[in-house]
Amino acid sequence: MTSPLDKKLKIKGPVLITANRVGDGAVIYRTGEGGWTTQFERAAVVTTAPAAIELLDAAVADDLGAVGAYVAPVRLEDGGKLRPGNLRERIRLAGPTIDLPLMAAIPAVGGP
Amino acid sequence: MRLVKSGQVVADDYIRVGDDAPIPDDVPAIVSAARLIAEADAILRRQAPTGVLWPNSRRVAELAPHLDRLALVALEFPKFRDGRAYSQARLLRETYEFRGELRATGDVLRDQFMFLLRAGFDAFEVKKDADAAVFASEIARHSVFYQPTGDGRVAASRARLGRPA
Amino acid sequence: MYVYDDLDRTLLAERVSEFRGQVARRLSGELTEDEFKPLRLMNGVYLQLHAYMLRIAIPYGTLSTPQLRMLAHIARRYDRGYGHFTTRQNIQFHWIKLEELPDAMADLAGVGMHGMQTSGNNVRNITTDQWAGVAPDEIEDPRVWAELIRQHVTLHPEFSFMPRKFKIAVGSSSHDRAALRIHDMALRLYRNDAGEAGFEVMVGGGLGRTPYLALTIRPFLPARDVLSYVEAVLRTYNQFGRRDNIWKARIKILVHELGPEAFAKEVDAEWQSIKDGALVLDPAVVTDIGSRFRYPQYERLEDSPAELARARAADRRFDTWVNSAVSNHKVSGYAIVTLSLKPEGGTPGDATAEQMDAIADLADRYSFGEVRVGHEQNLALPHVAQRDLPALWRALDKIGVATPTIGLVSDIIACPGLDYCSLANARSIPVAQEITRRFHNLDLARDLGRLHINISGCINACGHHHVGHIGILGVEKNGEEFYQITIGGRADEEARLGILIGPAVPYAEVADVVEDIVEAYLELRARPDEIFLETVERLGVEPFKERVYATR
Prior knowledge:
Chain B is α/β, with parallel strands linked by helices. By secondary structure, chain C is of the alpha+beta class.
């Protein structure tokens, strides 16, 4: 499986840097202030490969704060609202697309 | 890098000699595999102890004919994830009965000390000084082993014979 | 099941302590992620999309009730209240925090459980038939041998950094329920004409990007030689398996590149030098390990007790469930009960902490305190007295594990897929859920008969799609989820890889495609009791391909 990190960096639109937090594995996004946030809207968004590489290098160097940093696409909607750029990133942000078992009702007893 | 033997950091008696350099007569020296194979007779007639750095991509069977005149075999872990030298070590110790110094070199880290020791290594070029310092305490953390190797430690299956279930 | 003694417990405790130290060194920065990653993998700790994932080994799929209750505790205390049973008889928790893992592992060690070698380039959980020890067609309980091998390969100093993972399965029945031939190494226990116990040794199976079925490299290996032979195979693999390309690093590639004869010769050359050494299996050791397995004190009972027949006649739902989930037991008066973790619209293989606790209580009451985990992601109670089936069923029904679809179209095997897994290209769970909704009609499901659907969210094939009667593989095309469909695969003693029927179809159409395939089957089958797989074997894929792609 090709990790996003292994692909030659080609930017086809706005991107951010994302990773998982070392201590608890939470999804995090690189900020413009050289840190990380769990809040997607606060992610630093760049539009050129050199900018993305710079952001990525700094992220990767933060071995204590984050694990598995990579470049992920975002979409900028009309009005400037930031959205994840593909299904994988939507799922990382919002969680699994299915109900977790706790939320599923246990089937009713009885019936045909 | 620190050399650890018998659980302690020690000075390295051996020098590494490049393929094009003359080998000093009276100093323990480690040569490359290629040089050993090419110049075996000359090298192994040395008085001083001789060692070889054997790559993990070559069968140790090729080295076997020279073992009785080698004082040291150094095996390589280019990355600690590349575990070929564990098999080489066990073959050297258990199949070919090599009794000289078996040295682990390369990406040698604390978390592999116990595996290395059990595979038959007795000398360790430890990458990080901090790891070298804790060699003995790292080994002391392990007292139960499920399988036998050539290191003489009793496997659990034997140790429990005779004890009630 | 195997009962731990102080040696086993000490080994685990030492491992927990070691891992606690390693986690601390990672969190302090003393260890880089690059150095830490193989160490956490060796303890079953993955990084996934949302969080870390902990995979816990359930050796040969056998659980005691204290162990099952501990899994419920882990789900509640360290995760989000549920766990996922996998296609290798393990369990996974998907919301784990690294900083809490040492405590979770200490809790697990208290009941003899761990995540050792459920990941990493080492020998993984050794799986068997989940009916081991109780199936009528079994020659001998393979779990004693699985345990002997498990101990041998656990924290093995030589084989902890192999080119890639190594999966072993052990089987011992005429019908292969352990999917032997898709494993790196499979050992089929049997007795030769002279009555000696030994193993057929098969090597080189594995799914994924280049699927292969294992080949027999030794038709009969005397049982006393099994550890030395396994050692020789692993040593050959460790030295000569490819390390240049992660997609070519499994032993199946080595076996097929050398050819099975040359490979077997290489193994044999190594084996000759160690076969009479320390690894010869001392009968005393085999007896000792066997003595540490607890077997039930079965009562003397008759088959088909009157109360069972009465209950079946009185309650059609109960009768339906018995037909689906209850299987013959080698001891008269007893039964093997399969607990379905495939409710309509549910995630295949998931169980909540409440379900786990309830199942543990029922296992204590009705199954001598033992539960099994199957690679098809269902559970089993292996020692149920037939007279207890009515009461058991009522209780199982209440907790939602009595869906009477075992082995049918909606008993789907699916990996977690893109909803959880960082390797995935596409989702698998919602595909499975939709299929179960389309086929919720039990009469239809029963009429279709045995039909194994396997879904994988990526080419790593953790859903074993290659060997599904219908196999579904998620791929990505231009940012969209597409699915390749194969048919005709099987994982048993006649193992076969499925055949692609045509171009991949989009996410929204997968359930439609399954319906089309099923419709074609209903029209084409020679008799109602010719199952789908047999129809495909008789007619090939063309008629199904035509039906599916007529309008696509």
